[in-house]
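Teaching note: in complex prediction, the entire set of molecules is handled at once rather than each chain in isolation. The prompt given to students was simply: 'Predict the structure of this complex.' The entities are:
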Amino acid sequence: MAENHSKTELKELGQTLLRIGAHLMSAGANIQRIRKTVERVAGAFGCTIDLLITNRALMITISDDEVTHFHSGLKRTLPHGVNFRVVSGISRMSWCVVDNNWTIDDVNAEIDRLIALPHYPRLLILGVVSLAGASFCRLFGGTHIDMLVAFGATFLGLFVRQESMKQNFNAYLCIFFAAFTSSLIASICVKFSAEVHDQALNACVLYLIPGVPFINSFSDLIHGNIMNGIVKSVHGLIIAFAIAMGLMLAMQICQLLVL
Amino acid sequence: MGYFFFEKGIWFGSAAIGFAILFNVPVRTLRYIFIIGALGGLLKTLLLWLGINVIVSSLGGATLAGYMGVFAAHDKHAPPMVFSIPSVIPMVPGVFAYRMMLGLIKLSIIPDENYEKVLSETISNGLNATFILLSLALGVAIPLLVTRKESVKKAK
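The expected output is the structure of the full assembly:
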């Protein structure tokens, strides 16, 4: 279809492609995936694109094959929050566009549907992530009591993080609050009970580790997207720093740091 | 030995599920993430038990997770990263990173006679943590680098 796109069609398609890219970026996809997905959708509509991807904004130039018209657009990405349901959904959608000849309206409707998909229930998230904290504690060789402490500390820490996210605090500050809460609870338990060991303390902040930024950073770097890789690893380092600050403050308060 | 070994698998799997839920993965992928997380973690534990360096063991575990992620991606029609990233996060070097942070905090305060001992321990822990993280990221990326495919799904 679509050998000769009108101006408005190109503009609409450009905006849709930017939407796809921006949502993928904030859901935690790597650069390679964003580029391939956007190019695949553009290809299905018979257009060629050039895409500039940075962490906070995307820029696109889209033209039809005869270059009778072209459209350029810039879009800021949304605040980052890892959401693999969106990544997976957009990836599936991009193949539907290729196989089933979707129109631009279909694509937009599907994106709206994917964004509106619910997260897991809050209590389930809290419970399962706390279970993960307890699992870490067990893997480090903690006893059952250590696991219980890690569970409680993770639960309350994650709760604090969710609440402070709702209050629109700075994202790194939210992580600091969470790390502080978790490690304070664990530190108090370690300090006042001989039954609780260090394992509880070092497992209780692990739910905050910047695994997705570091892994994505590496995959961007080896694909030659050096700038994006550096930006993501610095983002990961700031998160690690925020965790360290929270941990340090809590341990200072409980005087657990032997200096 | 055998009992504790398989018990570890369950904990690796549960930790993977925890991160999967935190990352909001589709429900249909959860079962695979548990299995991949458990097997990857068990391979790492097995390699460690055979006396292999912790960095190489992590690379082995992460590579297994990466490959299984690709197979699961075919079955469940989701990108491989959805499976492999939550699965390798339980292998993240939490203890090394924790000790490195403590060491850095100690180093930043007035030096005493233990300074050199703390310094060497901190460097060793920090390098271990860094290289394990790198090997996890490499392990996830290896299947896609080896097959040189841009997408695991074949175009019709």
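Point out the following to students. Chain B touches chain A through 51 residues (CB under 8 Å). The mean pLDDT of chain B is 86.
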